[in-house]
Amino acid sequence: MNELSKAVRIELRQWRQFLVLAEELHFGRAAQRLHMTQPPLTQAIAGMEATLGVKLFERSQRKVQITPAGAALLPPVRDLLARAQELPELARSAAAGEHGRLRLAFVSTVGFGPLPHWVRVFRERWPSVTLELIEATGDVQLDMLSRSEVDAGFVLHSPGFSTPGLTQVRLASEPLLVALPQAHALVREARIGLKALLQEPLVIFPRRILPSLFDAIVALYHGAGLAPRVAQEAIQMQTIVNLVSAGLGVAWVPQSVQQFQRPGVEYRPVAWPRGRAVPACETSLVWRSDAHSPVLAHFIRFVQAAADAPVSPLSQEGRAQ
Fold it and tell me: For 144-194, how does the pLDDT look when each residue is reduced to its tens digit (9 = 90+)?
């Protein structure tokens, strides 16, 4: 057995005895502070020295002096004992979900809405939780969740969406708007009719990205006896809006995307036929049903409370109306 492996076997109690003696430099006073008698303390220090193979203290009848080896140990021993004292509170904090790491995926539209505000408030209240944010499309998030590469994800979907093996909580619902090129003739209309809009070339995301929302949009066309004329597909909402600004077509977007102001684009509501509901999209937080992370459970409670709370002036920056 080498000297390092012997040193590892020194217990915290012994390091505490070493530290008190180093501070007092007197066996009697140190023993009194430690609520023990002097002979066991003397034996404990001698045992440490034997284990380490070095002298920690020089003794004489008149005084006790710490050696250079002992002095070198003082800072790390103080740090060790301080950290050990923090362990019970750390365990309680971790069990309550107030300490640890949380990996969150999110779609870009949540970044236009409440996510930045939620992240800031959560970090201010619980600085011991490390939040790792990963922007990813819905299909990528589901794949990452299946491999436990993220703990939860903010996804966009149409009403009624669910995935086997995942639990979800709906956080927001918003109507779909249409993004139009600024020079488009429909921009000048007081009310943009659905029939005219469905004739226009469409910029849309691939179905694999958001299948439930893609199908809901396509259903608008099929309901009018039409098939969408897809001019271009793009993955990110920012890219879709940029393509609209270039005049490639129109796009159906969540209301929160209005936060992304791009020259050459106008956002407009659609005049829906009487009795027909305005199509909506929802934002949900999803996670594996078999997840048992206290940090995740803590974050879920926080987000649910934040989503239900009235929007204050401070949080207007982060939530789309």
Answer: 999 999 999 999 999 888 889 999 999 989 999 999 999 999 998 878 888
Other C-beta atoms closer than 10 Å to the C-beta of 22 total 19
Considering all CA atoms of the chain, what is the largest pairwise distance in Å, rounded to the nearest integer? 105
Say how far apart CA 122 and CA 109 lie, in whole Å. 20
Fold of 100-171+282-315: D-Maltodextrin-Binding Protein; domain 2 (3.40.190)
Q: Which residues contact 139 (CB under 8 A, 6 or more apart)?
A: 208, 209
Tell whether the torsion through CA atoms of 291, 293, 297 and 300 is positive or negative. negative
Residue 289 confidence (pLDDT): 93
Domains 100-171+282-315 and 174-280 share a fold: yes
SS3 content of the chain, % helix, strand, coil (to 5): 45, 20, 30
CATH code for 174-280? 3.40.190.10
- What is the Cα–Cα distance from 217 to 296, expressed in whole angstroms? 33
126 conformational bin, left if phi > 0, alpha if psi -120 to 50, beta if neither:
beta
- 3-state secondary structure (DSSP) of residue 306: helix
Q: Which two tokens stand for residue 58?
A: 């020089």
